[in-house]
Every structure is written in C-alpha cells, then in structure tokens.
Amino acid sequence: MTAPDVRAATCTVDGRPITLPQTGTESLWDVLEDHGVALPLGCASGHCGSCTVLLDGVPVPSCLVPHAEARGRSVATVATAADDALVAAMAEHGAVQCGFCSPGIVVTLSWLLRTTAAVGQPITADDVRNALTGHLCRCTGYTAVVQAAVSAASKISAASKAADR
Amino acid sequence: MPVPVGRRGVRPRDEAKLRGEHRFAAMLHAPGELHAATVRSPVARAVIRRVDTAAALTVPGAVTALTGADVPGRRLGSKVVDQPVLADREVRHAGEPVAVVVATSPRAARAMAAAVSLDLDVLPPLIDPRRALGPGAPPIGPAGNLVATARTCRGDARGRRVVRRTWRTGRQDAAFLAPEAGLAVPDPDGSVHLWVATQDLHADHQQVCRALGLSADELVLHHSGIGGAFGGREDITVQAHLVLAALRTGRPVRMVYGRAESLIAHPSRHPMLAEVELTYDDDGRFVSLRTRTLLDGGAYAHTSAPVTGIVHDFSAGMYRFAAVDLETTAVYTNNPPAGAMRGFGATQACFLIESTVDAVAAELDVDPVELRRRNLLEPGEPLATTGQPLTGCADPRAVLDAALAVAEPAGPPAYAARRGTGVALGIKSAGLGHGRPDPATAEVRLTPDGVEVVSAAADAGQGVEEVLRRVVGHHLPGVPVAVRAADTRFPTAGGSKASRQTMASGGAAARAAERLAGRLRDRARVLGRPVPDRWTPADLTALLGSDAVWCERVTLDEPRTGPDRPHKAFQVIAHRAVVDVDELTGECVVVQLVCAQDCGRAVDPVGAEGQLVGGTVQGAGFALWEERAVDAAGRQLTTGFGDYLLAGATDVPEVVPVIVEHPHPELAFGAKGIGEGPAVSSPAAVAAAVRAASGDPVPAIPLRRATPRVPA
Amino acid sequence: MTRHVFPATWEQAGHAALDGDAVVVGGATSVQPWLTSTGAQPSVLVHLRDVAGARSVDGMAGRLRIGAMVPVADPALRPVFGGTEPVWFATPAVRRRATVVGNAVSPFGPREVVPVLAACGARLVVLAEGGTRSIDVTAVPPNGLEPGAVACAAELAVPERIAFRRVALRPRLSRTEIGVAAALGDGCGAAISVGVGGPTLVVEGAAEFLRDPAGSPGFAAACCSAAPDPVRQLVGGLAVRVHRALHEPGGRS
C-alpha cells in the first residue's frame, strides 16, 4: 500500500492562511519569505535563533522546520507573538543594538514570560539566560536583555496580582 | 523630544527593531529583481586557466555569468588598490570570488554557481607569514610580500632583569549577525542605485566607481538596515558585484550571503605573532621594550597598513620605558585576508604588552595590579611609542580603580575548578589619526515643525543616530529632532569605524545646531522677543518668519592630527576578568567581566553601557573560543556557528560596565568615541585570569581550553 | 522535486522509506539544515510525525520504549537524563524538536545522546526490508542506517541512578569531545565517547565497580582501558567524577 502523500498544504501565519508548497526542500523560513514575511536569517542552521517563530505556540527557529512540517499548524511571528511589556523593557534597558537578533529573542522571551506567568512562577536571570541559549546576539553581550526580561516579568506579575485583587 | 545628553532614555528606533519592522539589507526587493551568487576559489593559490560558465548558463532561470574576463585589471582596495573585482589570471586565497552568476531565483543562482567549472593550475601556497619575506617565497602582493612596516627606536637603556615571550593571537571574525546583502537597481538615467549594509557609504562609492570605471554620478549608494558591523563591513564584498550585475542585465539584482560565505567573504582580525623582550630593574621598574611583531595580512592589503600602525603605536601600552625598539610588520600570504575588526590592532597590541607585564609580575612575584601602578604613565607624560602626551583622557589609575571597585563574584568556584582573576589595561586612539583626512559633514534643517539632522553616518547598531538626535536637541531645547540617513549625493560622514562617529558626526551636528540656536537668539533680539528655555512651534514660526527652513551644514575634522599629534583622542580601558578553570579538563568558565572605560562624556549612557558590555564579550570570545580555522593548505575549515563559537548568554553570566567620564577638552560635550575600547583589553584580562587560575602560560589565543594540571 | 509523505503506520513508513533516496524525518533539526546547506533534493521526505504510537513513551518492568518522535526534552525521559532536561544537548528549541531516536541514528551531526543511552543498555528497533530487528545503540554506522531502514523506537533500562560527565569547550552549545556515562540498574552499565562525532564505546565489566561505593578506581581503570592513549587520563578523571556522582547524588562533582 502507499502512504498518503498529499495533505492540506496550508498553515496560518499570524492568523492569516497561507498555502505551503506540495513539494521541495525549502524550510519554513524560505516559504515565509516567499509570502513576504521577512524574518532575519543569521545562520540557517538553528544556532542563532534570529528567525524564531512560534509553531503551534512553541518557539522554534523557522530555518529548522521543513515547510511540510508546518502543514495544518499555526505560525506566529514577532508581529503577533511579542509581549508589549517585554518590548518596552528591552527598549528601556538598551537590549537592542543592531536589532537583527531581536525579533527572535522577543518571540522566545515573550513565550517564556507568558508560560511562567501562567503557572505563577517568578523568573530569575538564570531562567532568562537558559531560555536565551540558542539565541546569539553579537552586539549587546546579553546583560541588558536579561535585565529587561526580569524587569518585564516582575511588572507582568505585579499587574496580574493587581488584577487578581 | 530627544532625551537630554547624559540621561538614560529609550532610543526611538529600538521598538521597531524589536517588533521586526526594521528593514535589513536582505529584506529589500525590487520589482523584476534578479538574484546573484558568487563562485569562489576552492584553493589558496592557483593560476586560472579557464572559468567555464557554459553549463551554468544552461540552468533553467540562468541570466548571465560574470568572470574576471569581464572586468580585467579592475581592482578594489581602500588603502592599496590590489584586489580584483573578480579574480583574473590567478587566485590568491581560498574563497576568493572568481565569478558572479545571475538568475531569476536564488535557487537557480546557486545551481548556476555549482555548475561553473574552474580549470586551475594549483600552486603551492604561502601559508606561514614567517616565510613571506624570506628567500624563495612566492610573490603574492603586487610588489613583493611586504604590506607595511613600522619601526621605532628610542634610547638604549637596559634593565638588570629580562623577560622574553612569544605571543600569538588568532583569526577572529566580526561575525555580525546579518550576513552581507545588497540590492542594486538600475535607474532609467543610466545610473545605478545600490542599497547595502556598510560602515562607510562614501568609501564604498569611491572604490566601486574606481574599480568599475564609473563616474561619481553614475552610482548612488544608500544605507539599508545594518545588522552589526564591528569592522567587518569596512571592505567591499557584494557591492561591486551587484553594481556590475545590474549594469550588465539592466535589471535590479540582489544578493544575500549565507553564514558560511559570510565567514570567508570579509576580512578577519589579523593573526599576530610577536616576540617581546621587556627589561626591568629589581624594583619592578620597566626599562626597555623590544618587539618584533608580524601580522598575517592574507592575500590582499585591505586595512593592513593602518592596522600595522595601530598595533605599533599601542604596543607599549600606557607604560613608561626609557628605551624602545619596536618593529611591526604586515605581510601578504595566501591565507584569507585580514583587515578591520573592532580594536583594529590595539587588541593584539594589548594582549602582547599586558601579557608581558603579567609575566614580569610572575617573575617578581608581585601583584600584577601593583606592578602596573608602578609603571603607568602619569597624565601628560608621552607615550613610549609615539611620544604623544597622554592627555584628554582619565588617569589610567583612575580607570583601573573604577574596575577594581566592583565587587568580585561571591560563592566558591565550581567543583574541582580553580578561580583566577586577571586585569588588563587598554589604550586605543579614536579617529583615524596620523594626519589622515577624517571629515564628517552633517546638516541640520530647522522648520517651525522641528529639526531634521541629515547625515550619511552608518548606524550599525552602535547608536550614532541617537547621538545625533541628542546633541542637536541639546542646542535646540523643546524642538523635536528627526534624523534622516543621507545617500552618497550628500557629503561624507566618514566611516563608522575607528570609534569616530560620536566625535566626528556628533561634533559636526552639534556645531550646526549651535549655529542655528545662535541665529534664533539673534533673530529674537532683533524682533525684541524673549529667548525661551524651550522653543515652541509658535516661537519658531515667529522667528523663522517667511523662511521655510533654516539650514546649517558643517564639515568637521577636529582636532587635527599630524606628526606631532598622531591621534585625536585616546580610549582608556580597564578590564577585570574572573574565570574558573577545571583542574582536570582545563575547561574555562567565565564568571564575571568588568569593563571600565573613560568615555569622556556618555551622551547616551544606556548606549555606552551597551558598547562596554558587548565589546567586552566579543573580547572574551576572542580569548577563549572564536577562530576561523584555516588548514595547512590555506583552506578555511570554519563554516558556521557550529564551529565558529560565539558566546551565548550562559557563557558570560555577569558583565559589569563602568562608565568613567573625563571630558575631552577639544570635543563636543567632551565626548569621545568608545566603540572599540571594550574589545581592546578584555581578551588580555581573560587570558590573565586563566593564567592565575591554572598556571597555563596562555601564549596563544583563542585558548579553547587550558592545559590541565597534571595530578601529582 | 522532493515529495513529502506522512505515513500513519510503521508499515506505511517502512514502505515509503524504500522509495529511491528517501530521507526519514523525525524532529528535522538536522535534516533541514542539511537540505539547506547542501541543496540536496532527495526523492521523498518521510515525515514520522503522524505515525501512530511514535510519540509515546511506554514503561514496563523497569524498561522504557521511546517512540521515534519523542523529543529530547520530553519530561517522560527525565529519568534517563538524571532527573533533569539535558541542557548539554543543543539548545532549548532544538531539544523540544530533536528526537532521541533520530539523534541516535543521524548521519548529519554528532550523536550526543548515545553515551547516555548506551549506559542504559539501549537498543534500537529498526524496521527494514527484511523485517524488524534490534541493534545496539552504539552499532549504528557513522553514515546512518542503511537506505530504506527506519528506526522506530529505542528500548532501554530505566536507571536507578545515572551520571554523565563530558568535556566540551563550553558547558552548553558546544559538542561533547569526551564523555563518560554510567548508570546503576538492571541492564545498565557505562559508556565513553571520544572525539566530536566519534564512536561511543561500551565499557565492559563496569557494572560491578559502579555498584560498589569504593569501586571508583576499578571503574576508572575500566574506562581507561577502553579509551585511546592520548585521552586516557582525562577519561579516568571523568570516570572518577561519574562514580562519585552516582554515590553522592547530592554532592558536587
């Protein structure tokens, strides 16, 4: 018997449906670029994290994903995955210089902040540094990024406590 | 409104960068665009018999293929015009561009590149720079293998004691995160417009025009978003190829490198081999310094000559020597070319002198910090190399004290690791120096709605845009300030290199704004209006009257340099590093890095701290992990971030910036360039910490791992 | 053009893998960079993501069966990695996608999980034209399984305790240059790996030394005898640390 080789070759990107190729070896990053969704691409090997997106809500460098693996899934770029408090804190702390790594870092750290806030945990600098493993930044030396994320997390936590009251 | 000079604040562009809305060069497109790819030499040295593009032109989507035969004798080079646009007759390093292919899709371009066949007569390459000037070395450069040499001899005193050491540094890459990219668009008027990520639009313009035989008005260069630079975008990569392809096809052409190509396409930091002899007296006073320093320039000159000058000028650090005998030489080899990288030779010089000072401290069994204090120049004393007085900067002791004042990390070292602390002092010039023209032009345009600063200065992330905004805002309080990036039809800002833009473009913009402020005050007096603390749109409307715009354009090249004053200003830096070294495995773990630097005045303190931290981490990477590995045949083995090891967030867990402010009397706001300083002395400090922890002499960096102590 | 198939059963997967130069895709974290960097265009990519049971971790009688789609970061695998996520493996994003089984058979990159799996006596369940077979996790050839073969699962002993110490340029983001892994439990033992991407070697006769709180010298000697000369001393030193970690789980080693 033959395996089914045609599935609905579509996914959503930031809520918008797009058609994926039926064939070919392009990565999800390539296909996003073809659809005018331009993400930074620093290595195409999963080391630098610049092209990170959420795939069904979980961060992954889009250069590591065969386009066919995105079939039937939702993709969120920084355009819809960014946490506003984090973005504000990163700008305030000088956590961005050239900005090439920034969208990927924002996607991952926004996810970290959301998932830890959801279980009511505080975030430490070590947690942030662990989460940043796989995101290379050549400009900032990471210090400001870590400070910004910790600061944003405490603001989010304070806000959610205030909301609970 | 701009944030006041010296105050912490947000840079307006940063939010767009964080949200992915900043347009980097690789994201630019034009209707009907074609895609180019480069074919590179697989060997380090060969005579080209034939470059056969016939098969490539049969690839579906193929448009054209360009080879050295299309641009015979055309050469690039910012200092020495020696680099072919495309190799003709011979190849001089592995990775040298031999052909450029153009197709209707990136994939087709890559397929074309793979189908180009090179018929090469491979020759034995010159790999060892020590052989370059010896008998029998093949000539690689246009007139022998000497690129540049500098010699300084002064005094003949000798101390009673002596240390001799040999130091080596490796082939560090700028490794900016956005690989090279550009888009060239032919204009109906016959000119070509090129958008590219570069440190210096005008230098690129001049080189490409000269190489391709274009008149100045036939090419316009525009800035795209720049994803980091660090010196690695100071030389030409995609620029000439794109312009050539656009002229040939009459269509827009874009080209984007991958990481592997980026890692071979731009020059690296110069590998250094230095033999050093330092004599001193029993009380630890230094007496003489002798160096014989060799820099591997690779196959083309690029910036080897000025790098040689910087290595030379700062080889004695900030120490007092009664006698120096220094010789610094850069040579051609068939290795990948070396050129500019953050520190521009001062990083290698710092490793050379600071490591030697530590060797003296070990011989005398004295505290390395105390030994430094004993031998540092007093402010105003002449540097041992150039004789230029150490002025316009903080006392190096004060910078050292600022670094040492930071608390050392608490807690014990990891299991079976020993902890070591190392200190290094760094010095580098800011600005080009040595009498070279170093102008920057900025224009400030005032309307009742606000002020616009026009400048061609490249903001690669280092923050010159924010500096321009703030210095102009300082003179025109209350007025909104926008910064507009000029293209090459506007005068040059000079390059974003040599830590110069805060002084150069910042200085020019400040002066222009100051003049506008003076004109406003004069007009107010004439009209009998009060001069307010903050200008309102109503004030400006009243004062400008029927003038639509007031404009001041300033070109600044101050203070001048020359034989008596080689350098405009000095960056003075102190680093302290704490490193744990595993006794068994030699694994090195960075625990804490402190960087104190005299910034003159930190116009944007958040940005300045970012420079200090980021440069320090680059330096730590140079000391421990980063190297473009090249094999014995001159072929680069390093192809990506799996083997070119950039520090990750967990590798540098604590980096502390300390801004020292000793205003420079001749510069606007007293603000000096600071960008390179943090990368000058952090490698030496990390190496010193590893020595302290492990006893490994660390004669060469990157170290990777310390030699483990052999258990007794 | 490369086709993509999504088999629902192992039978379909095995059939699809026989098609030309098919490449089997688990987490894809090494396959996609290989496709991108080489421009390779295999006839078909066989995606295992929808194969029934491929994502399950089944435990019984002290053994685990890890399906081919189980990622390295799966919490059910914590016992195999000493109770934590193996932070020495790649990056968090890669650990969430890269599969244990895929890494163990990958022809594209270093098989970082193999020393740990080998210490747990792991065997791979391989489906090929001739049927299903079981092979030792250390026995996969450097260039991967033969064409057409699909690794369906790994089967291994759940260790009572396990320790892994390695030499790498950096604690994270750097590949293992030398590794020593050892586990206590039925069917467990020790393994060393030497060289980035190098072979993993099972340390014969390690179990008795591992059990013995005073067995450190014997274990170190056993590891050394399996190691090539230049790194023998280093392997011995790591072995001492591994032994200590097994017997002083809370201690610093």
Automatic annotation (TrEMBL), chain A:
Domain 2Fe-2S ferredoxin-type: 1-81
SUPFAM superfamilies for the chain: 2Fe-2S ferredoxin-like (SSF54292), CO dehydrogenase ISP C-domain like (SSF47741)
Entry GO MF terms: 2 iron, 2 sulfur cluster binding; metal ion binding; oxidoreductase activity
This protein's record includes keyword Protein biosynthesis: no
Keywords in alphabetical order: 2Fe-2S, Iron, Iron-sulfur, Metal-binding, Oxidoreductase
InterPro entries, per the entry: 2Fe-2S-bd (IPR002888), 2Fe-2S-bd_dom_sf (IPR036884), 2Fe-2S_ferredoxin-like_sf (IPR036010), 2Fe-2S_ferredoxin-type (IPR001041), 2Fe2S_fd_BS (IPR006058), Beta-grasp_dom_sf (IPR012675), Diverse_Oxidoreductases (IPR051452)
Organism lineage string: Bacteria, Bacillati, Actinomycetota, Actinomycetes, Pseudonocardiales
Keyword Iron-sulfur: yes
Top-level lineage group: Bacteria
Species this protein is from: Pseudonocardia thermophila
Protein name according to UniProt: Carbon-monoxide dehydrogenase small subunit
TrEMBL record, chain B:
Domain of life of the source: Bacteria
GO MF term set: iron ion binding; oxidoreductase activity
InterPro entries from the UniProt entry: Ald_Oxase/Xan_DH_a/b, Ald_Oxase/Xan_DH_a/b_sf, Ald_Oxase/xanthine_DH-like, AldOxase/xan_DH_MoCoBD1, AldOxase/xan_DH_MoCoBD2, AldOxase/xan_DH_Mopterin-bd_sf
Domain Aldehyde oxidase/xanthine dehydrogenase a/b hammerhead: 19-124
Protein name (record): CO or xanthine dehydrogenase, Mo-binding subunit
Annotated source species: Pseudonocardia thermophila
Organism classification: Bacteria, Bacillati, Actinomycetota, Actinomycetes, Pseudonocardiales
TrEMBL record, chain C:
Residues spanning the signal sequence: none
Keyword Cytoplasm attributed: no
Gene3D superfamilies referenced in this protein's UniProt entry, alphabetically: 3.30.465.10
The entry's keywords: FAD, Flavoprotein, Oxidoreductase
InterPro entries: Diverse_Substr_Oxidored, FAD-bd_PCMH, FAD-bd_PCMH-like_sf, FAD-bd_PCMH_sub2, Mopterin_DH_FAD-bd
PROSITE patterns: FAD_PCMH (PS51387)
Organism of this sequence: Pseudonocardia thermophila
A Pfam family this chain is assigned to: FAD_binding_5
PANTHER family in UniProt: XANTHINE DEHYDROGENASE SUBUNIT C-RELATED (PTHR42659:SF2)
SUPFAM superfamilies reported in the protein's UniProt record: FAD-binding/transporter-associated domain-like (SSF56176)
GO terms for MF: FAD binding; oxidoreductase activity
Record has Iron as a keyword: no
Residue ranges of domain FAD-binding PCMH-type in the record: 1-161
Name of protein: CO or xanthine dehydrogenase, FAD-binding subunit
Source taxon at top rank: Bacteria
